[in-house]
Write a structure and sequence with these properties.
By secondary structure, the chain is mainly alpha-helical. It has one domain (2-222). Helix content is 61%, strand content 3%. It is built from 7 helices and 2 strands; from the N terminus they run ααβαααααβ. The protein has helices at 2-23, 27-38, 57-81, 89-113, 133-154, 161-185, 206-213; strands spanning 51-53, 220-222. The protein is globular. The termini are far apart. The model is unreliable at 1-6, 25-32 and 36-45 (pLDDT under 50).
Length: 227
């Protein structure tokens, strides 16, 4: 059991290192993020009682993304730990790969933000029946679609080119996840709820995204500094 745990940890660490290389963020890039984070003192203000606010500026946007990646990682960790009834080996492999991606994204933001990262969030998945394929994949679709619209909704606010590149690298992977989940459900991944009449992906403001995300979080998150 100990060796199995170490193997899983090694796999996650390898996935994270691979992601850093893919995103073009090596030691120097991590240093840039850490330096920028150290210049901000307001990442965890709480203007709303009981809420953790992501803060302002680029660091606030990174914390916003970190919050969403925490939620997705926690969800897929649970899915893989307790597979739904009737799951096929192919489906489990797909969901395991997505889990590893989301964990890598979560750990990337946590390391990059350092002391300016918001606290670890506690999920609330009481509304999801993890024994039901329809419930799990339905939730997965909601999370993935929400994630894509979330990144698209704040991209224009990012000031630092390196951060924009990172966001682009992540949202493209999230879009792949969304397409895969839609395929498993046998539904369109480009319907009118996701892609507009011009063939452009729909975006959502943080207030819209967090309204949904917070229904799956015991630790509520706000982003009052972003429209």
């Amino acid at each position: 059991m100990k060796n199995e745990t170490l193997t899983k940890t090694d796999n996650v660490n390898m996935a994270r290192r691979s992601f850093l290389r893919y995103a073009g963020v090596g030691v120097a890039g991590m240093g840039l993020l850490a330096t920028a984070a150290s210049c901000h003192k307001d990442h965890d203000v709480n203007p709303n009682s009981g809420f953790t606010d992501v803060g302002t500026g680029d660091i606030g946007i990174l914390n916003y993304a970190y919050a969403l990646e925490q939620l997705e990682a926690a969800f897929y960790i649970q899915v893989v730990a307790t597979p739904y009834s009737g799951i096929t080996s192919t489906e489990l492999n797909y969901l395991t790969e997505i889990r590893d991606h989301e964990v890598a994204h979560r750990e990337f933001f946590k390391a990059a933000l350092g002391t300016k990262a918001i606290k670890a969030l506690t999920p609330d998945f009481g509304a999801i029946n993890f024994n039901s394929r329809a419930s799990v994949l339905g939730a997965a679709k909601a999370f993935e679609d929400l994630g894509v619209t979330a990144y698209d909704g704040v991209g224009y606010l990012i000031q630092t080119p390196a951060y924009l590149s990172i966001a682009g690298a992540i949202v493209s992977v999230e879009a792949r996840h969304a397409s895969l989940i839609a395929n498993l459900l046998g539904v369109s991944f480009v319907d009118s709820t996701q892609v507009d009449a011009n063939g452009l992906n729909i975006s959502n403001k943080p207030s819209v995204v967090l309204k949904t995300a917070n229904t799956y979080l015991k630790t509520k998150v706000s982003a009052v500094n972003f429209s």
